[in-house]
Amino acid sequence: MNPLHQARLLHSRRQFLGSASYGLGTAALAGLFGNEAIAQSPKPVGGIPGLPHFAAKAKRVVYLMQGGAPSHIDLFDHKPELYKRRGEELPASVQMGQRLTTMTAGQKNRPLLPGITGWKEYGKSGIKLCDFLPHTGSIADEAVFIKSMYTEAINHAPAATFLLTGAEIPGRPTLGAWLSYGLGSLNENLPTFVVMTSRDKEASCGQLFYDYYWGSGFLESKHQGVKLRSEGDPVLYLSNPAGVSREMRRGLLDDLAKLNQMKLDEAGDPEIATRISQYEMAYRMQMSVPEATDLSKEPKSVLDLYGPDVTRPGSFARNCLLARRFLEKGVRYVQLFHAGWDQHQNLPTQLKVQCQDTDQPSAALVKDLKRLGLLEDTLVIWGGEFSRTVFVQGDAKAKTYGRDHHPRCFSIWMAGGGVKAGSSYGETDDFGYNVAKDGVHVHDLQATILHQLGIDHTKLTFKFQGRHYRLTDVHGRVVKGLLA
């Protein structure tokens, strides 16, 4: 059989229709670019027929990913027993021989260390948070605090990959890519999935942000996240080269599209259709992205809401405000990554710094979305890939000490998007070491996020190498106790 004919026969109906739509001509897309009346589409563009599966509570998601693992014991999970037992050895009956990293597996003693700062109750719900999180406390009645998260991964990159893709090994689509694939775009002039990164000013954390954290895996590459830069063009090559006008660029793209369409007709490769669409998206982004990233028209009251760091390019505060602007303009999924929580030896000094960097902007984003009437159908998620141990790594009497990795339990919070506001869910034991009640596995969190977007996580699948894959693998349940 002719291999080209065979390639066409292997096309799925969805791939055929998608390719056909791209082949209708880029001139029509160019015309669409100039039509401001439909710049933000009233109905999603693309996606899978039949989605959402049921009425959605949320239309969009912003994930405030705290790379390096924030300590639940110091921030969210107050444990009086630890204050009573400060310095005592972690009981073997609590540790139960569970896996430790190589950084503390050989440590002779594991003395208990309670939270390093004070605690305060916030809101009508009386949620107890550490003194380093007063701004998060101010939105306590808007959020649900999950204190019983757990995962299998014990090192950063596998844990972050697991949280975002459902597998510890890189290569599968991330949450944002699944949403782009399943639900499509709310604004044809902007990417469906936007990514921004930041780190603590002291650069104390060595954790890296790998491109596969926002990759599309085996889905078409048009579904991968578009990473914005803090310097120069927000997106690489967004500006035309010197001497190339916008009209000349349009002509070059039209000619290139014709060549790509000829190749698509010959080879039937869906990635060629993706290439055509991405060239068009890049052309439209030359106008839409600079406008979305221009904060000059934001009122002073809004800038003040996010804190003084909002004026510093690349800061978490600035990224939070940019996230609100992109969500407001119809971006489906925004992923912010902030590094700095990997406190093995600098807990007494660096924990406060991280809270100062992230506390006010995170709360401001929730308040700003509510001010604009967007919080109701925007799901905000804040948390890391796991947590840190209740025992000391190093010597608690020294100037520098910290906590090791701890996957057995950790805390995150969510706001908006139909969650049960002003509540706390799940419990850990008296030592904050193991989940004691209402555990929420990473796959459960993924299933619940998809549910709020109107998706049955067992039905959002993609066949690859003979198997139907999904974000939650073969696991996961919707946690009804988190939902309003």
Summarize the structure.
By secondary structure, this protein is of the alpha/beta class.
Secondary structure: number of strands? 17
Structure annotation, total helices: 15
CATH class of the largest domain: Alpha Beta
Derived from helix and strand composition plus strand pairing, the structural class reads: alpha/beta
Distance between the termini: 57 Å
Number of domains: 2
Query: Which residues sit in consecutive blocks of at least 5 with pLDDT less than 50?
Result: 1-39
Mean model confidence by pLDDT: 89
How large is the share of residues in beta strands? Answer: 5-15%
Biggest pleated-sheet summary: 9 strands, mixed
- The gyration radius over C-alpha positions equals 24 Å
User: What is the CATH homology-level superfamily of the largest domain?
Assistant: Alkaline Phosphatase, subunit A
Helix fraction, binned, reads 25-40%
Q: What global shape is seen?
A: globular
What's the assembly state of these chains?
Answer: single chain
- Looking at the overall shape, the CATH architecture of the largest domain is 3-Layer(aba) Sandwich
Question: What name does the CATH topology of the largest domain carry?
Answer: Alkaline Phosphatase, subunit A
Notes on the protein architecture:
It is a single chain. This protein has 484 residues and is α/β, with parallel strands linked by helices. The protein is built from 15 helices and 17 strands. The chain has helices at 3-9, 13-22, 26-33, 72-75, 80-84, 92-95, 134-138, 156-165, 175-183, 246-267, 270-292, 300-306, 316-328, 347-371, 442-452, and strands at 60-67, 119-122, 127-130, 143-150, 193-199, 226-227, 333-339, 378-383, 387-388, 405-406, 410-415, 423-425, 427-428, 435-437, 440-441, 462-464, 467-469. Strands 1, 4, 5, 6, 7, 8, 11, 12 and 15 form a nine-stranded mixed β-sheet that branches. A hairpin with a 2-residue loop joins strand 16 and strand 17. It is globular, with a radius of gyration of 24 Å.
